[in-house]
Amino acid sequence: MTIAIDTDFLVAVEIRDHLFHKPADVLLNNLLDEGHKLAVAPQTLAEFVHVVTDAKRLNEPLSVEDALARAEHWWQAREVFRIYPEGDSVTTWIEWLRDHRLGRKRLLDTLLAASAFAQGISTIITNNESDFKVFGKFKILTYQL
User: Fold this and answer.
1) How many Å apart are CA 54 and CA 42, to the nearest integer?
2) Pick among 3.90.1170.20, 3.10.105.10, 3.40.50.1820, 3.40.50.1010: CATH of 2-141
3) pLDDT in tens, 17-26
4) 4 and 121 in contact (C-beta within 8 Å)?
5) Is the N end or the C end of the chain the one with fewer CB atoms within 10 Å?
6) Torsions phi, psi for 120 (to 5 deg)
7) Where do runs of H (alpha helix) occur along 77-128?
8) pTM of the full structure
9) 135: closest CA among 111, 80, 144, 119?
10) How far apart are the C-alpha atoms of 12 and 28, rounded to whole Å?
C-alpha cells in the first residue's frame, strides 16, 4: 500500500528531540518492514524545510543546507512514491477549499490531500487528524505517544 505523509510526520521522524520522534520512527520502520511505499509531495518537502530551519519552532533548527539534504534524501528514497499537484488534483484542491470553507492555513494540507486522492491514495500519516478527516476520503494513521 502507498501512504501519504504529512509534514508533521516528516519533522517528527527527522528531528530527534521532537516530542513524537520515537513513535514516528517506530511507525516509519514498521511500515517499511511491511513493504509499504510512502507518498511525498514537493510542497511537503518545502514545508519541512521551512519548519526545521525555524528558530522560533525548534531549539536547535537545522541549517538550510542540512534541511535540503534531508529533503533530498526523502525525495530520492526508493521507498518513496512522488505525488504532484496537477490536473485533477488542483481542481479537487480548489473545490475542497471552497466546499469546506477552508482558509489560508489549510492550503498545503488540502493540496496534499487532493494530490493523494488523485493518485488513489486513501491513507495519510499525520497527528493533525482533523486537517484531513473533513474530506471524508482518508484513513488516518497517527503516531502520538
Assistant:
1) 19
2) 3.40.50.1010
3) 999 999 999 9
4) yes
5) C
6) 80, 20
7) 88-99, 107-118
8) 0.94
9) 111
10) 10
